[in-house]
Known about the structure:
The chain is an all-alpha fold. The protein has helices at residues 2-7, 27-41, 53-77, 83-86, 92-109, 113-131, 134-139, 149-152, 154-158, 160-179, 184-202.
Amino acid sequence: xxxxxxxxxxxxxxxxxxxxxxxxxxxxxxxxxxxxxxxxxxxxxxxxxxxxxxxxxxxxxxxxxxxxxxxxxxxxxxxxxxxxxxxxxxxxxxxxxxxxxxxxxxxxxxxxxxxxxxxxxxxxxxxxxxxxxxxxxxxxxxxxxxxxxxxxxxxxxxxxxxxxxxxxxxxxxxxxxxxxxxxxxxxxxxxxxxxxxxxxxxx
Length: 203
C-alpha cells in the first residue's frame, strides 16, 4: 500500500492498481480499509481501557494537524489531487481522526459491538445508498459546482460510515484475539486465516 501511495502519481504506474473511481476495489482501496481495521485492533476499546475526553482529544489532535498540514501544502504547491477521492478539503488523516472520535462516542451510546456494526451497515447500505440513492449524488455529481463545505467534501464525509464500520470490526477482532489468545481453536483459525489471506494477496 505504501508503494502504491508513492507510485500512483507517476504515469508508469498501472491505473488498475489505483483507487477505484466509482465501484469495486483495488490494492489501494484494500490498504486504506485494512488501515482502518488496524486502528481498531490496537485501540484502547479492545482492552476495555477507559480514556477521558482530554486523552481522546490529544490522541486525535496529531491526525487532525496532519490533515490540515497536508491540505495547506497541497494547495500551496498546487500538487496533483483527485477531488473525487475525498473532496476539496478532506483527506485520509481527517477521515481517521473523525472515524476514531465518532466510533468512540457511538460505543458510549451502544455498548453491543455486533448491534452497532449491524446498525451502521444498515444505515450505510440501505438508508444512504438504497433509499436516498446517495451513490448518484456522490458519483454522478462529482464534477458539478460544490456549493458548501459538506458538498465540497461529500466523498470524504459520507465515506465515514464505512470507515467507522471497519474500525469497529477491528475492535471486534481485537477483543476476539485477546479472549481466545491461548485456545487451540484460535491458533487453528489464525493459520487458516493466514493461508487464505496469502492466497488472496498472491492472486
